Amino acid sequence: MALVKCENLTKAFSTPNGEEIAVDGIDLTIDDNSFATILGPSGCGKTTLLRLIAGLETPTSGEIYYDSVRVTDKRPQDRNISMVFQQVALFPFYTIRENIQYGLKYVSDLSSAEQNEKVEEMAKILDIHELLDKKPGQLSGGQRQRAALGRALVREPDVFLLDEPMSDLDEKLKVAMRSELKKIHQQFPITKGYVTHDQEEALTLSDEIILMNDGKVVQQSSPGEIYQEPNNVFVAQFIGNHEINLIDGTPENGQISTPAFDIDVPEQLAQSIASEATDGVTLGIRPLDVQVVDDPSDALFTVTMQFFEHMGDSLLVHAETPSLSDIVRFTIPEVAEPMDGEQYHLTFELDDVFVFDQQSGEAIT
Ligand code: ATP
């Protein structure tokens, strides 16, 4: 098992339109035995970063270490890694036993009896023991996925890299496999790098989330921290089930004034805003943190419902107020459906509000 470290890692591809910088000077560490998810929008460089860590791409510049060993120029087969990709590439004419055993092909000195023992042990852990003599075509998608994990894990790699391994599974199976993967990580606490663009997967699976945008790491934090303490507006917008409300405001005299309401800010925050905000500020309020109150005098502002969405156990209401150009989103219990044009009096706690510099988008704390 190994800690993975990238230092000022850059990968530029030459394309007919010029140079494409897929990974742009990344510094990061994935701790020994931890489950790190590389998350971000399509094209931000997740797969390239994973392929660099695996040795499947050569960096344009920068270094990669496994523990203190420099592996930047090492071939994948010399790094003791395993990888699982989006498409489960099991050999269709091999049995599951043979497929898993293939994972031991490059592990030198095991007798065939020892190999078989390892395969059986792995299959028991993954609950595919009964399926060992079947061919991949006779298995369900989830069972095939487990067999692929078995083949990758049986050789006991130092680093296990997974690139969107669940994106071909249907939603229900994905959720089931998520729990499986979590269990597997407890049983095999090998350092894992897991690429996904699905934030729910990232939030539920990982010890750490590495959020990328445009070839750079914008935040590396635990799932709780990245949700509760986003570094900037991009992180706040990307993480969270419902799109965050962003409202521009102007700080003055210990208050932030927006076109819809004014709020008092505590002394310390007012000082940070005074020293860090270049122009105005942007307030970020998650829909779940907006409260509906009965009495307008307890509210900061009042909005009119435009439409709503059923979220299962709640409704997500989209509403507007003449003073704000953007829609305001908040949730209400799934009891009575709102009527057309229904008005809501809204408030929120300052503790639940993120304050960003309007120009740079960086968080002010
Ligand atoms: P997705 O979620 O859509 O898979 P990603 O975040 O994994 O995207 P990458 O596949 O790493 O992103 O690609 C990052 C950027 O590098 C993209 O603009 C992509 O077009 C470009 N890129 C990736 N591989 C190559 C290549 N072999 N040659 C040229 N450009 C490439």
TrEMBL record:
Localization per Swiss-Prot or TrEMBL: Cell membrane
Assembly and interaction partners: The complex is composed of two ATP-binding proteins (XacJ and XacK), two transmembrane proteins (XacH and XacI) and a solute-binding protein (XacG).
UniProt catalytic activity: D-xylose(out) + ATP + H2O = D-xylose(in) + ADP + phosphate + H(+); L-arabinose(out) + ATP + H2O = L-arabinose(in) + ADP + phosphate + H(+)
Keywords on record: ATP-binding, Cell membrane, Membrane, Nucleotide-binding, Plasmid, Translocase, Transport
Family per similarity comment: Belongs to the ABC transporter superfamily. Carbohydrate uptake transporter-1 (CUT1) (TC 3.A.1.1) family.
Recorded topology in the membrane: Peripheral membrane protein
PROSITE patterns (UniProt xref): ABC_TRANSPORTER_1, ABC_TRANSPORTER_2
Membrane spanning residue stretches: none
EC nos: 7.5.2.13
Domain ABC transporter: from-to ranges: 4-239
Annotated Pfam families: ABC_tran, TOBE_2
GO cellular component, one term: ATP-binding cassette (ABC) transporter complex, substrate-binding subunit-containing
InterPro entries per record: AAA+_ATPase (IPR003593), ABC_transporter-like_ATP-bd (IPR003439), ABC_transporter-like_CS (IPR017871), ABC_transpr_MalK/UgpC-like (IPR047641), Mo/tungstate-bd_C_term_dom (IPR008995), NA-bd_OB-fold (IPR012340), P-loop_NTPase (IPR027417), Transp-assoc_OB_typ2 (IPR013611)
Function comment: Part of the ABC transporter complex XacGHIJK involved in the uptake of xylose and arabinose. Responsible for energy coupling to the transport system.
GO molecular function, one term: transmembrane transporter activity
Protein name: ABC-type D-xylose/L-arabinose transporter
